[in-house]
Amino acid sequence: MPSPTSSVSANNLSSTDIEKNTDRSCDPVDPKGSDESYRVHLDPHEHPQQLSLFRKWLAVITISSASLCVTCASSVASFTETGVAETFHVSNVVTVLAISLFVEGLGVGPLLVGPLSEIYGRNIVYRVSYGLFFVFTWPVAFSPNIVVYLVFRFITGFCGSAFLSVAGGSVSDLFSDSTVANPMALYTISPFIGPVVGPLLSGFINQHLDSWRWTYYIQLMWIFTEMVALFLFVPETYEPVLTKFKAKRIRMATGDSRYISPLESEAKHLAHAIAISCYRPFQLLLFDRMALLLDTWNALILGILYLAFQAFPVIFQEVHGFNMQSTGMSFLGIGVGMLLAISTQPYWNRFYRRESRKNGGTLPPEARLFMGEIGGVLVPIGLFWLAFTTYKQVPWIVPIIASVPFGTGICFVFISTFTYLVTAYRPIAASAMASNSAMRSSFAAAFPLFARPMYHKLGTVGATALLAGLTTIMAPLPFVFRRIGHKLRQRSRFAVKS
User: How far is CA 371 from CA 89, 164, 271, 348, 469, in A?
Assistant: First the structure.
């Protein structure tokens, strides 16, 4: 029998030892009765952060492109609405539900897949969810009636949601705190670029191909490519699960069931974890005003972004006479704004290092809200500029340029809020992000449903100015919380105390 050690390796065991113990159980013993010396841990070289830089960046790029594909699928339905309405003989409002239900699925899914990843690991969640995302997109593409079409749009959104809740954890698993900023920035922007890419692709497809179904045929090809990349290039990165796998290998090699990982000794119950995942985000919204207001601000801005998928066709097709393809390209302004935002990441890295040095090497969570202050100003500026340049007499390029600061502001607001929530509510970071995701998705699902009636009733100027006014009301939030956030955290039952 080999002597117990926390870093024992199955490769060092003799064949005699293995043969001697093949009749013993390979399942772990009762955690309460296990010897501490048999607890298995990863050796330093086994940690996912020890992978080569190429392997780590390849995994991040694969995860980010998969996230982009999922969120692109949410808005890719925007230019299929006319064809779907004609095929299934339904009104335009019903076809808009294809976007709303998908986005609602994206919001509900993290409540389930978050706990699953903490028990079974990141990779199994990625592979199963993306496999189901691929399988359930087929009924959307070949749907015989509107009910099947809409039901499976919701299911595909639910299945794809893992990349909005779990993928950020993979990035932080692969990189240390000092090097995670750039890969996290790439991942963070991907889910927000996706909704902009959706109408761009959909406009080209539906302008030149003879059926709206081609939108989903091409989407299936993209999903399949991403799924193959996930199997080939993304390793398991969650350290507790890697330790669990190591303990299992040692038990199989030695036949000694006393070797056990920390995750197995905790004896987590999936049902209990899911229950906590479902109620704690809403508990946070009910009892923490700071989280509620920041989540509402984020939800309003994402709702406006998804409302744009109905508003831009009114502005550019009905006012400026664009065709479908050109209207899809009108979203490039928002995309350019987002890319400009991500290009400033080196500046923010330096800024946070300076702020950290000022505070004795610790960066206070409120420092993350500097970026949100800029974003909070840029969003209403872009919307007001857009509102008062939607007249037919104004050249079409001007409202597209006006959407650039809107896109930049969106990225700044979300990156700032996400990092603040994760650091200020670190003990329950997953729940903080789930509450934000649930509220954002609810607004994003609802706003497209009333977009066209509002624009036809108030006009392009009045409707867009109304949205700009709402974002102006919310703009002071990061300024206020940057100054008093540390005081509010002292009184919060959820936040980190400083």
Answer: 47, 21, 38, 8, 21
